[in-house]
Amino acid sequence: MSDPKSFPLPSSVKVVPGTENAQAALPYYTQFVPEDDARFWFYNSMHFPEPMHHFDLITAEAAYCALGAFNTRVHVLPTTKGIDHRVINGRVFIGGVPVTDPDEIALRQEKFQERAFYYYENWEDLYAQWKDKMKALIADAQALPRPELPEWEPIETTHSGKGIASNHSLLDIYRQQLEGYFRMWHHHFEFLLLGYGAYLTFFDFCKRAFPEISDQAISRMVAGMEAEIFKPDEEVKRLARRAVELGVDHHFSDNMVIEDVLAALDQLGDKGRAWLDELETSRNPWFNVNVGDGFYHYHRSWNDDLSMPFAALPGYIEKVKAGENIERPMDRLIEERDQLVSDYRELLDSDEDKATYDQLIDLAHRVFPYVEGHKFYCEHWYTNLFFNKIREFGALLAENGFFAEEADVFHLTHYELESAIIDLMLAWSSGSQPLGPGHWPAIVAERKQAINLWADETVPPALGVVPDVIDDPAIVMLWGITRDNLDSWLDDGTENEKELKGFAACAGLVEGTARVVKSVKEIGRLQQGDILVCQVTNPTWAPIFQKISAAVSDIGGSMSHMAIVAREYDLPAVVGTGSATSRIKDGQRIRVDGSRGLVTILDDEEVPANG
């Protein structure tokens, strides 16, 4: 029977006063409509934890275009289609499209087997081909010229018979950028759901064969993976070791000014320049990761802002000098993984079950590294390139008076940006003034204010009708949305206000000071031994894991990126609590039980962080 309590209906959520125009400017297909009241939606704070700028919403649009296509029509997942998204007050809400008709499921199952199994059988070859496609796409984006409008067309245009003026290039470059970005997301989902699918099939087998097995035990059977997304942190560790070997480690301290350190090393002579050469080796390509999850233009890459890797260097250097091991505990993870796989195999009675078990765990080990590895190429390297190219259009429009600074471009939707570009093309061609400088500044100012107002608004974790069952595997495993979780979110918290329940992501019992980090900008507040409390984290925060003793998140399931990363670094963690960042106060003492998925608030004392 359904719980009589329910989340607010979409139609009851009001636009924040003063932001009506900003809301109305969003594409019509992202606005809630009356029919949406009959559906269940949840706030995708895993990928969009902060209010979205108008341009940045292309990250949801392009992603769901591709995700849905591969779920619904390419690989044909039997019980789920794509994801619809709506945006209100800068927040992205998503709703799955389940398949419930048995005949349709049977038809889809048949198509899924002939399509997905081809990928599983040829995984290594297809994945190698995938990397070639992604590297070619990245090269295409890097090769796009900077958009510019000369006062006079170069004489070569006339003397070569080129027959195309410079203003046409603006439209050509911009449309190539959009095309490349949408294409990237298709590549992204070519393998992703199949990677999850292989793990989920193994997961379901284990749950049936070993009724008492924990989710954590199953997930540890696929730990110890090699994936590109862990490489940036490994490069920072390498740079720490090289600093000690070269005797330049004393230049790195917690309060260093990065530009001064680089200048000092350059002046130091051979050893300083040798370390700088090592830095350049690491930067291309491994520092093409951003400090977020690839969905916000202002989450800059390590290459654009060296703060994240340099913040990690002093801690790593100190550990290297003390003779401590700073590597991920790969040998231990693999030894534990293999022991678990072997122990549970022995519990199976029949040779047939053992053969199925062997086949499923082998497939999971083959395909699962993609679940993290693809992020380096897609959400990070390519997305950084994409946003930096949009910045170039921002700079061109700012030079021509459309707004004050290049970052203002991100307050325009991608449709509006094309119209601004065409406005500039027309003005250049006619020799008159563009109309944009009289049109955009007031709109940009209004939308800047909207972002600030939206940031202060409390966001409901879900909207609409609570379903009796949640059976979309991605929604359960990735976002951690289960019926039990929804019930706890609906609870007013009075049953036990000192306890929060979530998914047991990585074992360990830790007590410490909670540091509530609500955005990437607050990472610098973390002190040695703190327990990180956040909405969500991802592999590019790995350099700060050396500082923290445990982690707690609002969102995420047992296969969320945060859960996977916590296991890979053996960091005690509880994910998917729903409300940790609002119920735990910064500085409170808390206990994290990563084995039971339980967080306990121990006292109300707040300890302020430095900085």
Could you walk me through the main structural features you see in this protein, from its secondary elements to its overall organization?
With 611 residues, this protein is an alpha+beta fold. Among the domains are: 228-321, no CATH class; 491-601, 3-Layer(bba) Sandwich (Glucose Oxidase, domain 1). The protein is built from 20 helices and twelve strands. It has helices at residues 20-24, 58-74, 102-121, 123-143, 155-159, 166-209, 215-220, 231-246, 258-268, 270-286, 307-321, 330-346, 351-367, 369-399, 414-430, 436-455, 473-477, 483-490, 561-568, 580-583; strands spanning 40-43, 80-88, 91-98, 462-464, 499-501, 503-506, 509-517, 531-534, 550-553, 573-575, 589-593, 598-601. The strands form two sheets. Strands 5-12-11-7-8-9-10-6 form an eight-stranded mixed sheet. Strand 9, helix 19 (561-568) and strand 10 form a beta-alpha-beta unit. It is globular, with a radius of gyration of 25 Å. The two termini are 50 Å apart.
